[in-house]
Amino acid sequence: MRFMALALAQAARGLGRTAPNPPVGCVLVREGEVVGSGFHPAAGEPHAEVFALREAGEAARGATAYVTLEPCRHHGRTPPCMDALIAAGVRRVVVAALDPNPQVAGQGVAGLRAAGLEVVVGVRETGALRQQAGFRSLITRGRPWVVAKYAMTLDGKVAAPGEGGGAVSSGAARERVMAWRNELDAIAVGSGTVALDNPAMTTRGVPGGRDPRPVVFDRQARSDVQARLWRQGAVLVTTPDANASAHEAAGVTVLRAETLPDALTALGSLGVSSLLLEGGPTLLSAFLEDGLVDEVRAFIAPKLLGAGLSPLMAPARPMPAAQPLRDVTVEALGPDVLVTGLLSEIPRL
């Protein structure tokens, strides 16, 4: 458990940077000591096992490899990690979770065992699945894992668009959001948010931060092409009939879709594996109504606003129709409370 925790910490270094590949970490241990470690930094780069083996050198012979995802057996952009572990003389492999990719899906574990290595599967599997949720969603459903984030007052109100500095949550909450942006592939808002707030949608303040790909849902393609969020990799999601020529001329990637599920599939085709939904009540409501939110991260601030906007614009449902969250966590963050939970099962195989 302790060494797999180290491997998960290694994998976390690649979050938001590996799509469409998964974040993976590997730690090599010999006689109770870590002799090598590594993580997958980006698609096309060597996998975690390769970096760990390079660091360990001859010390890898007879060692145990702790890997957060089943070692691959197929040739992709890089050679199979299964073969590298066998060639290095590793005697035992501990795997957190099996790979849902049909090209792997148990074959890596089977190949290691066939070569005489001892293999253990399922150590800290829950943590690995959470880390790999985006990859698993993309490989099994063809669309990104959608995380809905919002902040509301104790009486269930959100800040109105265009309020500028009138944030609901505290500085500690905003720092956490910046960290999430650094770890997820893309960030989405609606056209109303662009028009009223002109957000930058960056990871300001995060050391070594990587700005997520901005995605704007705009049915009429009316968002100002001079808005701050348009940068390399930015995406405009609009309808088939909308005139988005100005955005295309400005270098914005334009995706045309009739429905939100179609839009998510189109984002998946770009390699987007995780999407942080930061849009206003209208966009959040639309995603929830279509059953497209996989995970919720909600800040509750200890303040009362009275009249104001609700996080959701959809009509209220009867309580028996409420969607329960699973794997719920509650955390005090400064003066606020952060509640997180899953609406969808993380895909396995």
TrEMBL record:
What reaction does this catalyse?
5-amino-6-(5-phospho-D-ribitylamino)uracil + NADP(+) = 5-amino-6-(5-phospho-D-ribosylamino)uracil + NADPH + H(+); 2,5-diamino-6-hydroxy-4-(5-phosphoribosylamino)-pyrimidine + H2O + H(+) = 5-amino-6-(5-phospho-D-ribosylamino)uracil + NH4(+)
- Tell me which residues bind substrate: R181, R204, E278
Say which family it is in: In the N-terminal section; belongs to the cytidine and deoxycytidylate deaminase family.
Name the pathway: Cofactor biosynthesis; riboflavin biosynthesis; 5-amino-6-(D-ribitylamino)uracil from GTP: step 3/4; Cofactor biosynthesis; riboflavin biosynthesis; 5-amino-6-(D-ribitylamino)uracil from GTP: step 2/4
What is this protein's function? Converts 2,5-diamino-6-(ribosylamino)-4(3h)-pyrimidinone 5'-phosphate into 5-amino-6-(ribosylamino)-2,4(1h,3h)-pyrimidinedione 5'-phosphate.
Q: Which cofactor does it need?
A: Zn(2+)
Give the CMP/dCMP-type deaminase domain ranges. 1-120
Q: Which GO terms describe its biological process?
A: riboflavin biosynthetic process
Q: Which species is the source of this protein?
A: Deinococcus arcticus
Q: How is the cofactor bound?
A: Binds 1 zinc ion.
Specify which residues bind Zn(2+) according to the UniProt entry for this protein. H47, C72, C81
Q: What is this protein called?
A: Riboflavin biosynthesis protein RibD
Q: Where is the active site?
A: E49
- Give the EC number: 3.5.4.26, 1.1.1.193
Query: InterPro entries, from UniProt?
Result: APOBEC/CMP_deaminase_Zn-bd, CMP_dCMP_dom, Cytidine_deaminase-like, DHFR-like_dom_sf, Eubact_RibD, RibDG_C, Riboflavin_Biosynth_HTPR
Pfam family, any one:
RibD_C
Q: What's one GO MF term for it? A: diaminohydroxyphosphoribosylaminopyrimidine deaminase activity
Query: Mind listing the UniProt keywords for this protein, alphabetically?
Result: Hydrolase, Metal-binding, Multifunctional enzyme, NADP, Oxidoreductase, Riboflavin biosynthesis, Zinc
Q: Which CDD domains match?
A: Riboflavin_deaminase-reductase
Superkingdom classification of source: Bacteria
Residue numbers binding NADP(+):
A151, T193, D197, G280, P281, T282, L283, L284, S285, A286
